[in-house]
Structure of Riboflavin biosynthesis protein:
Amino acid sequence: MKTIKLTYPHELSREQLPETVAAIGFFDGIHRGHQTVIKQAVTEAKHHNMESAVITFYPHPSVVLKNNHQVKYITPLREKQEILEEMEVDRLYLITFDKELSALSPQDFIDHFIIGLHIKHVVAGFDFSYGHKGKGNMEVIGEHSRGEFSHSIVEKVSLHNEKISSTKIRNLLEIGDVEQANVLLGRQLTTSGIVIEGDKRGRKIGYPTANINYDEDALLPKPGIYAVRVTIGDTTYDGLGSLGINPTFTADRKDLSLEVNILDYHNHLYGEELILEWYKFVRDEEKFDNVEKLIEKIKEDESIIREYFSNLV
Ligand SMILES: Cc1cc2nc3c(=O)[nH]c(=O)nc-3n(C[C@H](O)[C@H](O)[C@H](O)COP(=O)(O)O)c2cc1C
Ligand SMILES: Nc1ncnc2c1ncn2[C@@H]1O[C@H](COP(=O)(O)OP(=O)(O)O)[C@@H](O)[C@H]1O
């Protein structure tokens, strides 16, 4: 998959681009609703012998529109690319969402980023909007098409009568409910990064932990102890995940450390790329009076997590 970053105005010429079927949206999380939109675009593209594309935006529109500079993503760019690659999307157009873009009229947006990118068919969710103040939407997109492309609208995808949404997933992560978040995502929430050095305490207490240098704009679940799986190269292991400040040892630490003790593993990992999948919240972090009490608790965590994975179908 090619990733193509675009700002307004871009210099690409329509004639040199392949005819394309595009799914358009912000798609944070690429949850089951988003997947429906993207799969439909990929299927249509194959059917018509065209290329498939996902057109999305970065950063999140609220950075520009609401001056919100703290936005974190359920799927940071790296995760998004991996998932879209797996879904067999040919191109990812990443449009910079800045003041100029937000000021474009709906017609200018379509002329430039749909017709101008040689898109012949657009797939989007029922609530997608575009152009200044979001005045363009799927009800009026036909009027902006100049007869150059057709479109299809994907209706709301629900679970138990509730719309699957990035907001709902964010709320679940905030309370640590990664199990339910995974149901809405239609896959495990993942966080990836390189293994870096920590305080070298883990091995002394019998639980060495690989510390993961995750993206700073990755949205993580609430701090705590989790059942996780990690993939290193081609192999996946069960593990004890810990996200937090390690209050037994540190008083104030702003960034959260994400660490994993990999079960039945005895190798060096510094510098390795590791993909962590979140499975289940086990407990909140605690501040213990001494290391012995922490070790006792981690032993309990270990048996809970081993038991959890042995029962997972
Ligand atoms: C399963 C598990 C549970 C943990 N629970 C706590 C906890 O409740 N409180 C705490 O202060 N640290 C907890 N930790 C974090 C340890 O303090 C940390 O892994 C240890 O200090 C090693 O840090 P290092 O990798 O930087 O050397 C936990 C770690 C694991 C793997
Ligand atoms: N089962 C394991 N789980 C996690 N890391 C392990 C394991 N066995 C060995 N290691 C290695 O030990 C390191 C963690 O040891 P630790 O004493 O916690 O050091 P640090 O504080 O630098 O993370 C890991 O980064 C990895 O290289």
The chain is about 25% helix and 30% strand. The pocket of adenosine-5'-diphosphate (ligand 2) is lined by residues 195, 197-203, 208-211, 261-262, 265-270 (CB under 6 Å). The mean pLDDT is 97.
